[in-house]
Amino acid sequence: MDNVRSFCSSDTYEENGEESCDGSSVEDGFVDAFGDLAALPVEVDERRPTCLRCRRPQKVCLCPFLPPQPLEISTCLYVVQHPAEESRVLRTVPLLAACLPPGKCNVIVGRRFNEEKNPELAAVCRDSRTLILYPGPNSQNLEEIVQNQEVGSVKHNVIIIDGTWSQAKNMFLKNSLFHLPKQVQLSRTLSSQYVIRTQPSNICLSTLECAAVALSILERNDDIQEVLLRPLKALCSFQLQHGAQIHHSKEHLLKNGMYDKPMPKNKRKIKRMEKLVTDHNICPR
């Protein structure tokens, strides 16, 4: 019995002064300790107030650069957004939505889409007026399609995939719904104004820029492009004034010997990077 008692702490006693080896008073001590912790005040994570229109923190609100009233357009946009884009701080889609009327910029988040889970999107994909903006050998130039239509004769739906280039490629290839609409691309040569995020090529554009160019073509109004790009330029200007660096495209870095990351060992990736340097019309997906 002495050996058993030796495992008991000398300060483990019941209230009546008798020693206890069942650990009950130790457990009570733990409970009291956790109770004290639970009673401590909880620090509330106070997030900065957010502007309801541009979705930016109020101190850096971009509403002065948005149109006073939403742009009147007949085209309906469907932005299919990769889930990773939701957590990015410097997103362009909220700025795009803030410039357009309700119902004209519909954001659908996900990786995989089908008839059962996304009946509305499936119906849009099956609509003969729907176009999906995705470059490739099967794509038609959007301007050529519009030139062959009478003004105001067709009210198009346009699907734009929002994500990194690799994410967009994966989403396009693995969602059969996206192969139903007519595939289109932009033939206008426009250097991206979204200089605070790296693009693969000099002619690759952000989601907002793609929408701005597409809408200006479909609505036959070049002013739309200027109005939609105004908040993007203001966003980049603000970030650059507060420490952000200009991000050159991978194409620019490779051509000028400025690419400082290790070259990939995968042959497919090496060929893709070589194509960036040699092909002036590629916007890799």
Radius of gyration: 28 Å
> Can you tell me the residue ranges where pLDDT is under 50 for at least 5 consecutive residues?
1-21, 280-285
Strand order, main sheet: write it out. 2-1-5-3-6-4
Characterize the main sheet: 6 strands, parallel
User: In sequence order, what are the helices and strands, one letter per element?
Assistant: HHEHEHEEHEHEHHHH
Q: What is the overall number of helices?
A: 10
Separation of the first and last Cα atoms: 76 Å
Structure characterization notes:
- The chain has 285 residues and is an alpha/beta fold.
- It contains 10 helices and 6 strands; from the N terminus they run H-H-E-H-E-H-E-E-H-E-H-E-H-H-H-H.
- Strands 2-1-5-3-6-4 form a 6-stranded parallel beta sheet, sandwiched between helices.
- Strand 1 (76-81), helix 3 and strand 2 form a beta-alpha-beta unit.
- Helix 7 packs antiparallel against helix 8 (223-241).
- The longest helix is centred in the C-terminal third of the chain and has 19 residues, at 223-241.
- It is globular and about 45 Å long.
- The termini are far apart.
- Residues 1-21 and 280-285 have low confidence and may be disordered.
